[in-house]
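Section 3.1: Structural characterization of target chains.
Under the original work plan, the team committed to producing a structural model for every single-chain target entering the pipeline before any wet-lab resources were allocated. The record below documents one such target. The sequence was received from the expression subgroup and is listed exactly as submitted; it comprises 408 residues.
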Amino acid sequence: MEYVPHFRHPLFQPHRDDVLLSVISLSAGLLLWFVGVHNQGNALGLPGWVTLVPLGVLAALELVRRTAPQFALAVGVLGVIADQFTQGNLATIVMFADLVYAAVVYGTPQAARRIPVTTGLVTLVATIGFLAWYREPGALVLGMVTGLVSFAPALTGSILRNHREAAVAARLRAEQTALLAEVDRTQAVLAERARMARELHDMVANHLSAIAIHSTAALSIDTPETSSRALAVIRENSVQGLAEMRRLIGLLRAGDGDGQPAAAPTLDGLDALLAQSATFGADSGLTFALDDGRPPGLGLPTPVELAAYRIVQESLTNALKHASPGPVAVSLSYTDSTLTVSVTSPFGGERPGPRAPGSGAGLVGMQERVTLLDGELEAGPATLDDDTKIWHVRALLPAENENEELPT
């Protein structure tokens, strides 16, 4: 036989505190009735036990003061009105005040706003009515009692609810702030990792590619002259690669041994970079030329200079790995607050000597650098007018001239 779970409605599952409150209130009311303590005289001459009926109803409603607060208040109003036609019981009045309080604290937002206003109006009308009926200042006491039983609990519940809602809102804002801070931290970490990856690739790839090409040449062409030349290139690239690694470590530590930030390469170092590439690519039939069309005294932001240098460096590394014999041309120009970097190399022909494998990370790094500067990058094969196939890299980097005296 299949077991079917039995679900109980929350209305029949009162809170433990509500049960305790109901039992204590009912016990106190019974004790007052037993010793003969009443709120008013028995004008209608009803039996004394009739006082226990409103008392029992209000005690039962205390069980659902959280699960059905508005229902409990509606029935409680009828119960407290009925209590006025009996000898009366103080416990009944106290329980009604608690139902008003609970209806504001645990009821709907609309009820929480409406009940204090309603009870306030009832208190005002009751006070005026008592004064008109009795025409004595003592009638104000009855109005005050009405306010203490209805308006005061509603106002107290409204204040408590507002404090709770404010605390919940503050906690949610704190959680959202913490979440946003964590998202920002994660994005910052990812951005820093990407920057480190670009720097590491651009710094070391050129030297390691030269080491791979010349070590392969030394192994495949076993002559003293070739081995000696290859070992010289390997040693030079090893030393320079080590220097670049030390510079990267300086960047990560935000300072070098003197406590100053490590200097970033600039476009003024392109001559040395091309001379180095010419040495590495001599055996592959590659020649390198630089056409620097920048205006004299041009001042560019450091991030732009670094990005342009790395783009040229990566393009030269790719040429050393894959280009066919022929000229590799690097050109720079600056017009309309835009630095244009162009690198062309032979493409598609036979290449003498060994090749170094590529991973494609260099093109990704160049694209990331250009995107960070809101620039444009084109990289791919092209055909010249004489049907010569080339690999063309062209980057447009927005850059304001930092030398205000120099016209752009």
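The chain has two domains: 10-177, 265-408.
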